[in-house]
Structure formats: structure tokens, C-alpha cells
Structure to design on (156 residues):
């Protein structure tokens, strides 16, 4: 289908291959664009091999560092964008990994930030670091939710 695809996995699969997990991949047509899909099902076939069903979530995925914002150290320069009043030290902020999707299948035209579920707090501000640049963003509507991760809308 247009939003999903299947992958043959062989007779043995890794323990992390289960529904709800995210997978990053590239295509043979474009090896520079990171695509993100969610594993929807894993089934054993009659011949003893496994097959996974995946749903395409978005393209142009960018891995980044994310940290909870300390509001005393930033100034809003423009709606939704903040200037840091000091140098950020992500190690001191207990940074964690996130994924920015600039084009999502489920929510056309919206940017999505994928975070570990235990780091998500509704309405929170996060400092994201992409390509060495720091930005402060306030997360919007919860778009996707799984046991280990959430996807939240970001301002365009």
C-alpha cells in the first residue's frame, strides 16, 4: 500500500524487532534521505521465516540531541523561537536522543519531534540541537504514541 510495506527477515530475528519499534532506512533511489517507519506486525510464515509489516511515518529524518529547557536562561526572539542567554552544555542538561521529521505521512505538512516517552511532558519546551545549532521549541499536539516513544507536533 502507499503507507506501508513488508520486509522478509529470515528465520531468526533480533529481540528488538517487535510492533511499535521505529526503523530508519534509505531507499535505492535516494540513499541520502533517512526514512522512518514503525513496525506494525511481525509474523512467522509457513516456511519458518519471519515477515514484518511496516508503516511509513516520515522522510527527511534528522537525529539530534534534545534536552528539557531551563526557562530562566532563554529569551523569546520570535514566536516559538528562543535565543539562549548562555552557552548550552547538553551533558549538563541531561540530553537525550530525538528524531526530527520534516515531512510526516500521518500529518501532512507538519514537523514532528520523536522523543522517548519518559521524556515527554505536555506543553514543555525543549532545546534541540541540529547540525550544531541550538533552538528552543515548544511541543504541540501529541500525534503518535507508543510504549517507548511519542511523536509531537512542532511549529513550522
Amino acid at each position: 500500500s502507499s503507507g506501508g510495506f513488508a520486509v522478509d527477515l529470515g528465520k531468526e530475528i533480533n529481540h528488538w524487532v517487535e510492533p511499535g519499534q521505529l526503523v530508519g532506512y534509505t531507499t535505492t533511489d535516494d540513499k541520502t534521505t533517512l526514512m522512518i517507519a514503525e513496525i506494525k506486525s511481525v509474523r512467522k510464515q509457513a516456511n519458518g521465516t519471519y515477515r514484518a509489516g511496516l508503516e511509513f511515518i516520515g522522510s527527511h529524518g534528522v537525529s539530534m540531541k534534545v534536552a528539557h529547557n531551563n526557562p530562566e536562561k532563554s529569551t523569546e526572539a520570535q514566536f516559538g523561537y528562543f535565543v539562549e542567554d548562555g552557552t548550552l552544555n547538553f551533558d549538563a542538561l541531561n540530553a537525550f536522543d530525538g528524531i526530527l521529521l520534516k515531512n510526516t505521512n500521518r500529518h501532512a505538512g507538519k514537523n514532528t519531534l520523536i522523543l522517548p516517552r519518559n521524556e515527554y511532558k505536555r506543553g514543555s519546551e525543549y532545546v534541540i540541537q541540529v547540525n550544531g545549532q541550538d533552538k528552543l521549541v515548544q511541543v504541540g499536539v501529541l500525534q503518535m504514541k507508543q510504549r517507548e516513544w511519542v511523536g509531537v507536533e512542532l511549529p513550522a
Observations:
- The chain has two domains: 4-59, 60-154.
- The longest strand covers residues 50-68.
- Residues 4-59 form one domain.
- The radius of gyration is 18 Å.
